[in-house]
Amino acid sequence: MIFPSAQSALTSFDGSISLDTTVQKPDKYRFFDQKNFGNMISRGAGLSYVAASFGLKSKTIDHSSFNRLLSYRDGILEVEAGATLGRVYNYLRGQNRYLPVQPGHPDITVGGCVAADVHGKNQFRDGTFVSLVERIKLFHPKHGIIELSRTQNPKLFDLTCGGFGLTGIILSVDLRTRSIPSPFVEITTIPVPAVEDLEKILKDIVNKYDLVYSWHDFTKKGRGFGRGFIKAAKFSTAGQTHFFSAEQDHRHLKRTLFAERRGNWRWAFFSPWRTVWFNSAYYHFNLIMPASQKMELYDFLFPVHNKEAYFKFFGKKGFHECQFIIPTGKFAEWAERVKCFLSHDSTPVTLASGKLFAGDPRLLRFTGNGVCMALDFPRSAGSLRFVEFLYNLAMEIGATPNIIKDSDLSAKVVAATYPEYERFKTELKLFDSERIFRSELSERLGL
Length: 447
What we know:
- By secondary structure, this protein is of the alpha+beta class.
- The chain has a domain at 184-412: Vanillyl-alcohol Oxidase, Chain A, domain 3.
- The chain is built from 15 helices and 19 strands.
- The strands form five sheets. Strands 5-6-10-8-9 form a five-stranded antiparallel beta sheet, with helices on one face.
């Protein structure tokens, strides 16, 4: 059976990379019986900030037709790779369960979460997405369909979780879910007077809450640079029952985020002075809100949902997101040097957000011990100066950049900041000597 293909212009979500590529959208499993596909790469929702699901010489395999929830038993949910987090959330809430590790938007697919080994709102306690994965079904044209787990093909399991789709096509995933105490969380807003205070405050509170992240204003000059707050949430103990209407179900499942539509606004809102105003308004708005609030868990897990205009504010040129794990004990130095750079530079940092991390670095997974900090800022004629400064600082103090968030990372920077970079390349080559699965990301990083 011949599956049709089409030429399509695909764009990374940060707006930095657009390529015309061949796309196939299979809807039957017999597609995965074919051999000798040539170079290819999987695509879920296409929401990676980087070009992880397309490349100049690779055919993109669109998984949107493979989005079923297959089975549920004893807390283990089996889903196809194209199933979205929003759909999984809606199903699991009926079982009084949830996934404790989730990125910030419900349109992201489970296959994408495995391939990027994403983190959630309390990585320090819950780890990364691999901690939920029990089993994977993987297709490779030269090896057929392979089952992976910690005991069955464990090396390939390790390589696939956080492998950016380079080991093959993920067909389905078995996920270990967790009991959900309540459909609501109680949120406490904790002020952070200056960013250098963040590490200590996070260490003091992270074990007391279920979900924790921070926001900071990096446009504030001088004293108070990085002022902000921590949003710390616990599951509600009020014992309330909540019933969801069909309209809310529809809201949770209607797709709202698309890489190709993010740049529809040609005019960029985030100029330096507008960003100062925007951040100041957001900071003071949160400080005047009640210190304790109640929110549906869905809205806390997916804070970007229904706030997609934020990404459009960057306009056609798009944005940078540079995210790093700054090693324990190094955060104050990192913050001081960023403050010093920005005191002489007009780069408008639209978002700075932090979390506490813990874990042992492995292959190309984004994990480690320290403070994770993400910085968003518009792409402009001068923005690469700030990017270059951040990379040099990371290499100097031993910080780890997030590969799946940053389209400007080079092989040189990744090799210098990921101790197992060469091991990943070697093991990938041993499994797939022809390197069938390729993307712009893998070519740029020499993988």
